[in-house]
Write a structure and sequence with these properties.
By secondary structure, the chain is mainly alpha-helical. The protein has a domain of 60 residues. The protein has 19 helices and no strands. α3 runs parallel beside α5. The chain is elongated and about 85 Å long.
Length: 280
């Protein structure tokens, strides 16, 4: 190493004995590339821990690219979990479907108890479906749910990104029940926290229309009329079309009726809208 320098020596490190590799890592600031890390890992996994610890001591920037981390996760989920627990891992790492499923099955409770630490690394769709099969997703959702209404107000919280992979007919129910449990308040008193996405999921048409009316009154956004029951949305939109001369605005209003027919799952209403479109 003293003859050729650290850079040249680094290329032959993976070929050394585990003891020699450990000595080099402890006495030199070494950066290994993905293929070198794989060789070292396969030779003796604990050397990866040594590599991490030495970089941490020197406060030097590391380190693994995601290809190596995925390789470790696929070959030895238990060792990968050890890395997750004790070292800072790239937040952009996303494990595949099979690896996610494998780790979930062995570390269910750890993931549920500390979701903010672990969820970001897993494939969300696989995570939700498998935890739901185990009857554990509701608890994970509850643990991830913000404790501050203002944080929930932005509509982009992680718990609701996961919720979109939960059975669609139960999403609104789980959201509102969890909101009441965590915030000890009714969602009707905090409509800004209710993402428009949920309105379409409400099976009870009366409840959906009531919430849409409140949202409409609050925002004056005419788009909320599409969530009304079909005939009511038709009456209101027709009234607005009758007093609107601008073609672009009339087209926008007609589009709301088409969306309303889809939300209400009413093909007969769609036919009525089509006939009205021809003659209006």
């Amino acid at each position: 190493m003293s003859t050729y320098g650290l850079f040249i020596a680094t290329t032959i490190i993976p070929g050394c004995s585990p003891k020699k590799i450990e000595d080099i890592l402890k006495n030199n600031e070494v950066k290994l590339w993905t293929n070198q890390l794989k060789v070292v890992y396969n030779k003796q996994p604990s050397l990866i821990i040594t590599y991490l610890n030495e970089h941490k001591k020197r406060k030097s920037e590391l380190i693994f690219d995601n290809n190596f981390l995925k390789y470790v996760a696929q070959s030895d989920p238990a060792f990968f979990w050890k890395l997750l627990e004790n070292h800072e891992i790239n937040n952009n790492l996303k494990l595949g479907r099979r690896t996610t499923k494998k780790i979930i099955m062995s570390k269910t409770h750890e993931i549920i108890n500390e979701p903010k630490k672990y969820v970001k690394y897993f494939r969300h769709e696989t995570l939700v479906r498998n935890l739901n099969k185990l009857g554990e997703f509701k608890q994970l959702y509850h643990n991830l749910f913000p404790r501050d209404i203002e944080k929930l107000d932005n509509g982009h919280v992680l718990c609701n990104k996961l919720l979109k992979y939960y059975p669609k007919h139960n999403q609104y129910k789980l959201f509102t029940e969890t909101f009441k449990e965590v915030m000890n308040e009714n969602i009707l008193s905090n409509l800004s926290c209710l993402d428009d996405y949920f309105l379409e999921l409400i099976v009870d048409k009366d409840v959906r229309e009531r919430l849409a009316q409140l949202k409409y009154m609050e925002s004056n956004d005419i788009e909320y009329i599409k969530y009304y029951q079909a005939e009511k949305s038709f009456t209101l939109i027709k009234e607005k079309i009758n007093v609107t001369a601008v073609i672009g605005e009339r087209t926008k209003l007609l589009c709301i009726l088409v969306k309303s027919s889809a939300i209400n799952k009413d093909l007969k209403f769609l036919e009525k809208v089509n006939v009205y479109y021809i003659f209006c």
